[in-house]
Amino acid sequence: MKTTASRILAPFAAFAVAASLTACGGSDEPSSSSAGTVTAWIYPVIADDKAGTAYWGQIEKDFEAANAGTDLKIELQPWLNRDEKLATAFSGGKGPDVVLLNPDQVPQYVRNGSLAPVDKVVEPAKDKFLPGAVKALTVDGKAYAAPIYHTVTTTMYNKKLLDQAGITTPPQTWDEIKAAAPKLKAAGVATLDYSASPTATLNLNFYPLLWQAGGRVFSEDGKKAAFNQAPGVEALTFLTSLYSEGAIPKAALTNGNVIADQPLGKQQVAMGFTNTPADAKTVATTWGAGNVIIGLPLKGEKQVGFGLPGGLSVNAASKNLAGAEKFLSFMIDPQQVVSLGSASGFLSPRTDAKVPAKDAEAEKFAAALEYAYPGEPNPAARQVMSLLAVELQAALTGKKTPQQALDDAAKQADDLLARQR
Which of 20, 61, 217, 268 could pair with 263 as two cysteines, CB 3.0-4.6 Å apart? Predict the structure, then answer.
């Protein structure tokens, strides 16, 4: 048993946990395992460095006690540059036996043959998982990751600022946000927090609004962009109108999903719509716990918020596939699912293993889980985000109309998708 870790500062962008985290990083050299060893790359799902090291160290001990003859080595990795490091390891036929992945990462590694199907692990417990948890980690009918936790985002309001504007019921729909904006402006604050920095994941800004409008990022077959259709234009028009009226802070252009650094955290804006349990704990120290209100995801044509499962995948080149599968089976067991959720603050991907809510806010986030949508897995998902983010900024600053910006992004995305077929 060996847990390797070194301290570096890395943003938790991909999991949509909007906070600046101190992460653990393993060796820069790709790992390779002998027949009796299982190496796993795990990322900072537990925000506190010391607590994460202790938790995964105990997992190593417990797994080895239950699986005599197998040496588990968990290497705690940083989020920063994780795809580059993992791709390099996979391309060299090395890398860990097991790696923690998000749904938008899985398709690209399946396409290049880096992952082995894990249906043997998932199938016995498949009916115990949330319907979307396994589906989000499935490609062409095969599961390529076993869910071990689930994230969720939802609305968060500053009660003090709403009270100052005479708003007694927090805005829960797009129309209610539009109606509240003039009152909040008169009270000297903005209405809706937003992160438009090109470094911010669209899963925590534009995409939830697109889904709420009834739109999609990609066509059903995944071969074309769909975000420039009517729902996408409606969502971006909603955003640009609020921005031009001052209901979204001008700082949105550089905001990057870090709550403490944003107007919402600084009490300059009344609400956010893609906030996490970690965000709620962060602002409670400055707003006062009584001023933190957690609601359900916003409602447009649909009521939906962003949330995704984190899953463990198996390296197709592993020298110990059987040992890797045993580790996955160990981690999806209800006992481990609950222990990880309790340590990380995330929710359970299983219906038969609930993570105990520590407070009223945690219960509200748990209630939002039924509206959580993980997005549309596509091998080009990350690249399309980068293309679209630039055009969204052009629309917000008035350089292009919403339709022009989305059409320009769609043309680039379609060219990219065509080259990758």
Answer: 268
pTM above 0.85, yes or no: no
CA angle 40/46/52 to nearest 5° reads 65
Domain ranges of the chain: 2-150+309-357, 154-306+380-419
Residues 6+ apart with CB under 8 A from 197: 253, 254, 255, 256, 257
Beta strands in 20-103 (DSSP E): 20-24, 37-42, 71-76, 98-101
pLDDT tens for the chain, residues 1 to 421:
555 443 222 333 443 333 333 333 444 444 445 568 999 999 999 988 899 999 999 999 999 999 999 999 999 999 888 889 999 999 888 899 999 999 989 998 999 999 999 999 999 999 999 988 999 999 999 999 999 999 999 999 999 999 999 999 999 999 999 999 999 999 999 999 999 988 888 999 999 999 999 999 999 999 999 999 999 999 999 999 999 999 999 999 988 777 888 899 999 999 999 999 889 989 999 999 999 999 999 999 999 999 999 999 999 999 999 999 999 999 999 999 999 999 998 999 999 999 998 888 889 999 999 999 999 888 899 899 999 999 999 999 999 999 999 999 999 999 999 998 7
Whether CATH 3.40.190.10 fits 154-306+380-419: yes
Rg, C-alpha atoms of the chain: 21
Beta bridge partners of 315: 115
* CATH architecture designation of domain 2-150+309-357: 3-Layer(aba) Sandwich (3.40)
Q: ∠205-25-332 over CA atoms, to 5°?
A: 70
Distance between CA 382 and CA 103 in Å, rounded? 11
Find out whether 269 and 249 touch, Cβ atoms under 8 Å. yes
Distance of alpha carbon 373 from alpha carbon 161, whole angstroms:
29
Say which residues have a Cβ less than 8 Å from residue 10's Cβ, sequence separation at least 6: 21, 22, 23, 25, 44, 78, 79, 80
Q: How far apart are CA 73 and CA 89, in angstroms?
A: 17
Quote the CA–CA distance of 89 and 28 in Å, as a whole number.
10
The DSSP code for 41 is: E
